[in-house]
Design goal:
With 207 residues, the chain is α/β, with parallel strands linked by helices. 52% of the residues lie in helices and 15% in strands. The protein contains 8 helices and 7 strands; from the N terminus they run βααβαβββαβαβααα. The strands form 2 sheets. The protein has a 5-stranded parallel β-sheet, with helices on both faces. It has a two-stranded antiparallel ribbon with strand order 4-5. Strand 4 and strand 5 form a beta hairpin. Helix 4 runs parallel beside helix 5. The chain is globular, with a radius of gyration of 16 Å. The protein starts with a strand and ends with a helix.
């Protein structure tokens, strides 16, 4: 039986910025699986979230950072989540145009496929800016299509969280972007059903 190794790669939401417990949604999912030893396969998880990074920057470092953490012989998976920083306005443009975001995610998915890493993609969450969220929704929809075309599970969280008063209140009370522990717990709960199925498939692969 081989270990399950998972890299969470993306932006500040992956890193869990704003969470005083320093878990974020990724840490909560990893803890959930570590405590649930059904199947008996150990989980090694690595958080590779970097604040302010765009999807293009995440895609550019994915292989270099994941390869040492996903050694040969393990059941290897990558959870990708990014896109909010792409849609940040800079003058009359965004940091990354929608087409560039789509290309970056496609590159990241191809890199994972080449290396034999199973992928789960989590969509970008909302911030305390309606116009920013509207731009993110365009990227979110395109990301969902890219993943559907490749048969990869995509977990959208934008619409649910921007209607959730707790998430939006915590984001507004903090820095306008990041929630606190309870907000990240909400996001983890949204992702959990897809995560459980995905990591279960990884555990089966490791047997």
């Amino acid at each position: 039986m081989s270990d399950v190794h998972v890299c969470f790669i993306g932006d500040s939401f992956v890193a869990g910025i704003g969470d005083p417990e320093h878990l974020g949604w990724a840490g909560r999912l990893a803890a959930r699986t570590h405590c649930d030893r059904v199947g008996g396969t150990p989980l090694s998880s690595y958080n590779l979230g970097v604040r302010r990074q765009t999807s293009a920057e995440v895609a550019a470092r994915l292989v270099a950072e994941c390869r040492p953490r996903l050694p040969q012989g393990c059941a290897a998976g990558v959870v990708i989540s990014c896109g909010v920083n792409d849609t940040t306005a800079e003058g009359s443009q965004t940091r990354v145009p929608v087409g560039g975001s789509v290309a970056a995610l496609s590159t990241a998915l191809s890199s994972c496929a080449t290396n034999g890493w199973k992928v789960l993609v989590v969509g970008p969450p909302p911030v305390d800016d309606a116009a920013h969220n509207a731009r993110t929704a365009l990227v979110d929809a395109r990301f969902a299509t890219v993943c559907a075309d490749r048969g990869i599970t995509y977990v959208p969280v934008l619409d649910v969280l921007r209607r959730d008063p707790l998430w939006m209140r915590q984001v507004a009370e903090d820095d306008g972007a990041h929630p606190q522990a309870e907000g990240y717990a909400l996001m983890a709960d949204l992702v959990a059903p897809a995560w459980d199925a995905w990591v279960g498939a990884l555990r089966s692969q490791g047997r």
